[in-house]
What we know:
The strands form three sheets. A two-stranded antiparallel ribbon has the order 1-6. The radius of gyration is 25 Å and the shape is globular. The chain has one domain: A middle domain of Talin 1 (Up-down Bundle), CATH 1.20.1420.30. The chain has 19 helices and six strands. Helices cover 69% and strands 3% of the residues. The chain has helices at 3-46, 83-124, 128-140, 142-154, 159-182, 191-212, 219-237, 239-254, 280-284, 290-300, 311-330, 341-369, 374-379, 381-386, 388-399, 403-421, 423-432, 448-469, 476-497, and strands at residues 187-188, 216-218, 272-273, 276-277, 441-443, 473-474. By secondary structure, the chain is mainly α.
Amino acid sequence: MAMLPRTRHKKLVLGFKVLSLVSVSVVYLLISVFSSEERSDTYNVLDNPSRRHLLQVNNVTDHPGENCTPPAIDEFPSDGFTREQRRHGAIVLHILLSCYLFVLLATVCDIYFVPAVKKFCSNLKMKEDIAGATIMAVANSSAELFINCVGTFVTEGDLGIGTIVGSAVFNILAIPASCGLFANMAMDIEWWPITRDSTMYCFAVVALIVVVEDGTILLSEAIALVVLYSLYILLMCFNSSLSRIAHKVVAKIKRRNYYVEVMGETHPLLYRKNGKYQGLDEILQEEITLEDCEKFEESTNIWIWPKEETIKGKLWWIFTWPLSFLLFLTIPDCRKYPRLYVITFIMCIIWIGITSYVISWLITIIGNTLSIPDSVMGLTFLAAGTSVPEAVSSVIVTKQGHATMGLSSSIGSNTFDILLCLGIPWLIKAAFYPKIPGAHWVEIHSDGINICTGALLSSLVLFYASLAFNKFRLDWKVGLTCLLIYMGFIVLACLVELNVFFVVNVPTCDQ
């Protein structure tokens, strides 16, 4: 009978996981159906001359005579299929390839990237939350930086900012939801790293709201974003001192003494024998047997057939072997070759960037085939696609017991996305490649971005409140709360971008 509550708890958690997956799928399906209906309604609204002044003619360059914006699929290479071919079954290939690339990202993060980050931590003597908020966040955000460079310099559209705003909400809500629901354990989180990163992220969001309010990004505003991230790195350098001050302030507010004297100790935890404390070696050292080494060698050798695995494990080994072989040829395993961890880290960044771009391309094609508007795609599918590295690596390190590192990575990558992934391309564009000679500014077009960036603050407050009310303990309750908040944000943001409340976007041109 003692095992019955635990069994019920496991069933409850499993039910929440299934409910979460089904709920997200239903929301995306409703968005797809609703968006196709809204497209015709939006055209009718735009035909009213009294409402036409809300639109911007800058978006109507590639389709003369039409009051619409070109689809985002035009900003990517052709996949070799027509839209009708994709609707008649070819889209299944895109879906299968996307899933296979998700497995590739998971393999890169699990086998190569996370061990390389741990090597950085040990060699640079960095705390796990610092490494998560800086090294891990920067590496995972390489896809967003690349996409915003494409959107700023090549297409001169809002693909980058829409994707980064959408991925910011995904990182702050969906990733903690994934960690809480799929980690299969409850973990205590250090309050100071989360508070520190959330505070800096709050400043970054406020700066973004101020910058995009008038629809133009001045050179001075782009410089301010880059300088603000430099201050964030400077803050990390003094993290130990700031942490001590913060803990002293909190202790003084709570009027609680953290040092409790233990009275009447009858059985010491570490007892003396021959002048030495026994038990300490057992705590600090792990016994590594020859069998452990052989198992590690088998798990990292792609040429050894997994004889002891089940049929399911053997089929999975066959399914992932081409990916393992490709990564084996291009990325050195820093677990075998510790001195090559820098090369491992760099190659992981390259693989994460390339794979994320291809996933974003495939997801854009899927959304176009399902008639989902690009403004909605940037906030949902494309944002989720570019945030896959953060999600995979955060869930992996959380399952390994480093929940603070996983959450610091998701919040830190948001700060990097807003301040550098947007700031650096805007800075270079405004300073050296202005659209009009002498006009050192960058123009953005979607009025809905202002509303969505405002919603970033509310999502951050709700995320932090859910952790604080749960006493900074990451479990399924926090995961479910973050998932529900994320779904609510997605529905609200999509309704805004679909011109339900008021017209903010020109409809996508028909192909």
